[in-house]
Each structure stands twice: as C-alpha cells, then as structure tokens.
C-alpha cells in the first residue's frame, strides 16, 4: 500500500465559514503562508453554504454582517439573502488569495497533542498532517440537532432539517409539519405557506417577534457607498452604535426591555385577529431571554386558513400521524425540523485530545470554559473562533470573529517573539478566573433571569454561549495575549547518553 503523504504546517485552520476564512486572511496579512484550511464540505461558506432553505437570510443588516476589511457597497437589501452572503464569502476567498490554502473534503476526525514534538497530530478525511497551531472555526451552529422523537423511524414521508434542505423534494401541495419556532423556522413558515396544502407548526415555546426593517438598497445608495466609502462606513457605524447602546438592557437592566414587548405584541395584533391564536403565540418570558426574531411575514402566514399552530412540542410519531404533547394529532407528508444545532456540546470537542490525554469534551463535561473565548487549559496552541461565551443576542457575530482574529494575530506574534519550538498553554487559574467573572456578570442578564429555557443555556442551566457585554469591550479584552495567563512550553530535553567505556579501561 502506498504510504500516505505526511505534511507539517505551521497552522491548520478547521472550517471555511466567516471564522475560518477570516483566520486565513489574518494569517496571510501577518506574512504567514504556511497554513491550510481544512473543510469537510466541497466549498467555502459554512452557515451560508449549508442553510439554503426557502427564505434564508441574515437577521443583522448586511452592512454590519460582513467583514470590516472586506466591505461590500453592493449589498442588495438591508438583510441580504443566503445566496448573496454565500457569494460574498466566495469573493472574499478570491480577493484575499485563499484558494491555494483550501483543502476540501477534509473533515477533521481527530486532533491529538504531541507533547514531545510540541505539535498537533491531525487526522483528516484526506490524510494526516501535523501542525504547530490549530485554529478551530467549526462554527457554533453547524451541526444540526434533531430531537429524539419516539416513532420517527415509522414516518413514511420526507424528514429533513432546515440546515440540510433537499431542493429535489417538492413541498408544493403537501401536508407539512414544521417543528420548532426558532430563527430558521420563522423564515421557512412564510416562505412555504402559500404553496403547501396544510402547514402544522409544532410550537414548544413562542418566540418574541419584532418588525423587520428590510428593504431594497437603492442604486443611489450603492453608488454613494462605492464612490464615497465614508458613507458606507458611517452606515456601518450607525448600525453598530445602536446595537451597542442596547446591550446594557440585556445584561444589566432586563426590565428596560418591557416597552419592546409592547411593540412586539402590537406587531402580532395587527396580523393575528383570532384571540385564541394570539394567546397561543404570546410568550410568557421576558423579551430577549431567547433570541429576538425579526419578521413581517411570520404572523400573517400563521393567520392563513391552511395553517394550524399546535402550541405544544411534538411528542411522538405514529406512521404519518404526528402527536403533540397536548394529545392533538396531525397528518403529514413531510416533517421539517427547525430545531437548531449542537451549540453547548460542540461536536469538535469530542475529537480533540489535549496534553493530559483527555478530550476537550471530557474537560467540558460540566460546561464549556475557555480563556477569552479562545483557548482552554491543557490544550496548547489550540484556539477556537466563536468559542465559549462569545455569542451575541443582538448584534453581528462578525464583530466578535474579528476581535478573535486580533487575538489569534497576537498569539502568533507572541510565538514568534518567544522564538524556537514553543507552545502557549492557558493556565488553569487564568481560565478559572475569567469564567468566574463571566458567570458573576451573567447573573443579572436577561438570558439567565428572563424565565425561559433557551439554547444559550447548557444541560446544567449555565450560560456558556453568550458574551455578557458590548462588542467593543470584547474587542478590548482580546486585543492582546497576556503572557501571564499562559505557560510557555518548550520541548522536553532529550536525555544525554554517556559514552560507554571500553572494558579494558574499566579494568584499569
Ligand atoms: C440560518 C442562520 C442564520 C444566521 N444569521 C446570523 C445573523 O444574521 N447574524 C449573526 O451574527 N449570526 C448569524 N448566524 C450565526 C452564524 O453561524 C455566524 O454568524 C457565523 O456565520 C459563523 O461562522 P463560523 O465560520 O464560525 O461557522 P460556520 O459558518 O458554521 O462554519 C463552520 C465550518 O466548519 C466546517 N466544519 C465543521 N466541523 C468540521 C470538521 N470536523 N472538519 C472540517 N470542517 C468542519 C463546516 O463544514 C463549516 O463550513 C446565523 C446562523 C444560521 C444557521
């Protein structure tokens, strides 16, 4: 059998969404070209490649939901759709010369720290390699979660998840059951409702939904943003500033969010005239506790005669009959799960084995913990983009990703300054202190006090996903690596073997 090529790189980046591509740009800008981007799929885009369901779009305005170093004056709408965001990421890949670094169909199966050589041994679907540094950008929302529903195997029709849309299956004229009422579901419902025969929405918890200020960006605006970049920067600055001002209500004064609930209720009232349906759609927790959703078409779609809302979760499936936990039954030809992703149990964590021989998943069995959202104790030279407690409730994740790219940049600089074969490993005490402060701040936030059970919280009820501050604060605390928070590892000294004396000399 031919021996597999074994390559060594300075950096292995995993994933080619906003995070992985951003890391690649940052490395190149720092003059580092000895790196690969390992991607399990066959193209770039991450979230925006995998989510192609009808109606898929961002819910943060495009001029903020894009890289500051790769502005796009041509965004077609305030909230651009998936095809445009995916095309944007393809352009970023070309503009910054990233193609030579991409390794598609290279799912990372395992990562093992080698403490003798101070490098990571990486097993991928396209062969093994070793890397001094690993940047994991596998995404917080990239592995779909389907709940374990008794009897689902007995369903004779089509079963799919919002993040794996089958464009060959035609929903027109079918009886469709939509499971879940999160960000994806509320985009899918109005997009398919006019075409399906019957739509049954299984709603465990109703979301708070606000109007979506979406519109086409005019040719004049695009022209202005192209000719006068300062207008585009001002637009981005305004979008960012408004969201920064909202943060303290989420993190310190949830009661200030009360008037927003009034707006949301009014928004519903305009579209839903049936008081019983309105009651079923009205949340019983503080707005902001779960992600606030934006839509002008969700409530009008739910008010249509071909839609039923089952205000209960899906309990079981009996053949083509779906049974709600309130006992109600609905017939369906197709089930669409809009049930989210593995967020607090990041799948890559099971595949990473650190310095002590334990996996990151084992280390995180009581909850994910990192230092500044990036590094974990016992996992040297391993950085995560969008790691624990870096999520946002109200603004663009690209701002957080860019802050983490600064941290990555400084991490690489520190390795260069220290020189030689070297690794940085987060001190357990630093990780502990960072998380103690985080959790202390978390106590007052709407995510912890708002009376809801959301995907922000892990199985122990701990919030290990959201950042309890402004994006500018996160940028500040990730600008530089504080070496006091790290142990500097150097290769163990090889034992010096004493020359063996000749027998005659011994006798003398
Ligand atoms: C439908 C949807 C809408 C969203 N809208 C917004 C929004 O409006 N605003 C906002 O701020 N955020 C939004 N998000 C969150 C979004 O996930 C982030 O904004 C951002 O796109 C994450 O980028 P990423 O690169 O970290 O992860 P992803 O884009 O998820 O990319 C991860 C990549 O890693 C690859 N990968 C995973 N595991 C492996 C492995 N073992 N080996 C090799 N490759 C692997 C995946 O194939 C994928 O390409 C949305 C998410 C979804 C799902």
UniProtKB/TrEMBL annotation:
Keywords: FAD, Flavoprotein, Monooxygenase, NADP, Oxidoreductase. InterPro entries: FAD-bind_Monooxygenase_sf, FAD/NAD-bd_sf. SUPFAM superfamilies: FAD/NAD(P)-binding domain. It comes from the Bacteria. GO terms for molecular function: oxidoreductase activity, acting on paired donors, with incorporation or reduction of molecular oxygen, NAD(P)H as one donor, and incorporation of one atom of oxygen. It holds the Pfam family Pyr_redox_3. Its cofactor is FAD. The keyword Acetylation does not apply. Belongs to the FAD-binding monooxygenase family. Catalyzes a Baeyer-Villiger oxidation reaction, i.e. the insertion of an oxygen atom into a carbon-carbon bond adjacent to a carbonyl, which converts ketones to esters or lactones using NADPH and/or NADH as an electron donor. Thus, can convert bicyclo[3.2.0]hept-2-en-6-one into the oxidative lactone products 2-oxabicyclo[3.3.0]oct-6-en-3-one and 3-oxabicyclo[3.3.0]oct-6-en-2-one. Is also able to catalyze the sulfoxidation of methyl phenyl sulfide (thioanisole). PANTHER family: FAD_NAD(P)-BINDING DOMAIN-CONTAINING PROTEIN-RELATED, L-ORNITHINE N(5)-MONOOXYGENASE-RELATED. This is Baeyer-Villiger monooxygenase.
């Amino acid at each position: 059998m031919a021996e597999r090529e074994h390559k060594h790189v300075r950096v292995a980046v995993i994933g080619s969404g906003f995070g992985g591509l951003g890391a690649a740009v940052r490395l190149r800008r720092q003059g580092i070209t000895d790196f690969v981007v390992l991607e399990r799929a066959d193209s770039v885009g991450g979230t925006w490649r995998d989510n192609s369901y009808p109606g898929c779009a961002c819910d943060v305005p495009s001029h903020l939901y894009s890289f500051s170093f790769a502005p796009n004056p041509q965004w077609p709408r305030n909230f651009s759709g998936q095809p445009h965001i995916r095309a944007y990421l393809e352009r970023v890949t070309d503009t910054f010369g990233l193609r030579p670094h991409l390794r598609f169909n290279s799912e990372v199966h395992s990562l093992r720290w080698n403490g003798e050589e101070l490098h990571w041994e990486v097993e991928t679907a396209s062969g093994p390699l070793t890397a001094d540094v690993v940047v994991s950008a596998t995404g917080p929302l990239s592995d779909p979660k389907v709940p374990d529903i008794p009897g689902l195997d007995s369903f004779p029709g089509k079963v799919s998840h919002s993040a794996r849309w089958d464009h060959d299956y035609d929903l027109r004229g079918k009886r469709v059951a939509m499971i879940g009422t999160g960000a994806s579901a509320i985009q899918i419902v109005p997009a398919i409702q006019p075409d399906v025969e019957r739509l049954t929405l299984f709603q465990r918890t109703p979301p708070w939904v606000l109007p979506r200020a979406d519109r086409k960006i005019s040719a004049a605006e695009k022209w202005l943003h192209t000719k006068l970049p300062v207008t585009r920067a001002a637009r981005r600055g305004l979008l960012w500033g408004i969201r920064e001002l909202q943060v303290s209500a989420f993190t310190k004064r949830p009661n200030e969010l009360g008037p927003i609930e009034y707006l949301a209720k009014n928004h519903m009232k305009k579209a839903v005239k049936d008081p019983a349906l309105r009651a079923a759609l009205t949340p019983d927790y503080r707005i902001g506790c779960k992600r606030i959703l934006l839509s002008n078409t969700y409530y009008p779609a739910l008010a249509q005669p071909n839609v039923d809302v089952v205000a209960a979760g899906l309990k079981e499936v009996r053949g083509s009959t779906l049974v709600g936990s309130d006992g109600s039954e609905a017939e369906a030809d197709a089930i669409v799960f809009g049930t989210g992703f593995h967020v607090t149990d990041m799948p890559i964590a099971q595949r990473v084995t650190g310095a002590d021989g334990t996996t990151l998943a084992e280390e995180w069995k009581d909850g994910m913990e990192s230092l500044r959202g990036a590094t974990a104790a016992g996992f040297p030279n391993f950085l995560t983009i969008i790691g624990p407690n870096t999520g946002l409730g109200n603004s663009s994740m690209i701002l957080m990703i860019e802050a983490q790219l600064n941290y990555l940049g400084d991490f690489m600089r520190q390795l260069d300054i220290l020189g030689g074969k070297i690794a940085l490993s987060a001190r357990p005490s630093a990780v502990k202190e960072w998380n103690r402060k985080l959790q202390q701040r978390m106590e007052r936030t709407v995510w912890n006090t708002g009376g809801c059970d959301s995907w922000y919280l892990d199985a122990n009820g701990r919030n290990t996903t959201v950042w309890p501050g402004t994006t500018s604060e996160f940028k500040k605390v990730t600008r530089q690596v504080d070496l006091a928070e790290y142990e500097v590892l150097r290769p163990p000294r090889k034992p010096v073997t004493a020359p063996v004396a000749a027998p005659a000399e011994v006798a003398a």
